[in-house]
Predict the structure.
Amino acid sequence: MNRVTRPFHPSDLQAMVNELAPLFGDRIHLSQAVRNQHGQGEDSYGCMAPDVVIYPFCTEEVAQILEMCHRFSIPVIPYGTGTSVEGHLLALQGGVCIDLSEMDQIIEINPQDMDCRVQAGVTREELNKALRYDGLFFPIDPGANASIGGMASTRASGTNAVRYGTMREAVMGLTVVTPSGEIIRTGTRARKSAAGYDLTRMYVGAEGTLGIITEVQLRLHPIPEQIRSAVCTFESLQGAVHTVIDAMQAAIPIARIELLNSLQMKACIRYSKLTGFDEAPTLFLEFHGSPEGVKEQVGLFEEIADGHGGQQFRWAETTEERSVLWEARHKAYFAAQALKPRAKAITTDVCVPISRLADCILAAEKAALETGLPCPIVGHVGDGNFHLLIVFDPENRDELHAARDLSATVVELALTMGGTCTGEHGIGSGKKAYLRAEQGNALEVMATLKRALDPKNIMNPGKVLDI
């Protein structure tokens, strides 16, 4: 992916840095090492470093930076924890990276209303540590210890989405800094509203292309009375997927239901040093509720699994055992990369209607086998979302082309089945062509919004849309 010409003169960047220096001091970084760190995510697109990195402490400081970037027409790339996988952090036109990690304050927790407000740099693990004293938790779990602002920007979801929804459902309101440096607040603490345009939903999932999210109002949930986790292996991938479909259609309120195919289980067993697990299609499960409710859920699910070739359940009875189980699942991406020396991975992210899940997964696996590349499958299958992880050598041109072609094939499969090219990772700079294929002329409406709100195209340019 090539960097386009910078839309600003180097002297304008220097003038802006000189104006900001008295305000930010050593929180302005020009070193190549820091810039390189901020010019890439956990993806296969390489590094495109920004020209400068700045660490603000509050919304007002973000507004000061954006006002100057707007004045000098300098691009801005928001940065959370660097865990995105679709080229969101590439400085395609150079510019300023605003690292929000120092904005890590939990502003308020309202236990009676089960909501809270946090700065964008707070990570989900930090938030849950603070919430446990009030018997609450924040359920959105994308695996990585991502920042709340980044999760809102990419409309993240993860392992709990089947029960608790995605960031779209979790976010009640936002504080946003517009491209010109104006501070606006969307939403309220009320559980619903019919007041005006839904600006909160517009910014959630905008991937930093319309403004910078600096504070997030979140919906919380009580910690369940009982949590039970289990692993169940299957004779075939088809049996595992049909178990998921039947369980969802039976309305069993499972909190987590994750699918790993045989190759992904092999990778996780090696990488996370799991013992006593089989290299076979496997479902990772978690049930939340009262003891009686959980018992009923488990019984219903075991009955369905048995009918599709499910083997004996292996239960994680303690918190420590559950942590080991889910940590192995969360490290599936790195486990997949470890299958091949010096490998990178394309993380396909399609999502389809639940009734087409088996068709899509089996067709994707067949296409992957034909390439000869190692392609583990892992997915939040309870809501029809799965990842075919295409592992390849980036120095091998044939493998690179085969990986990209396979990624396109998987997206085409999903779109023909009424699905989407991305269930949770976003478009970034890597899936723009897929977005056009999926959304058609609705893309022009998105472009109209982008031009209206960001007429100078300084907000994360080159991501989601080409303007």
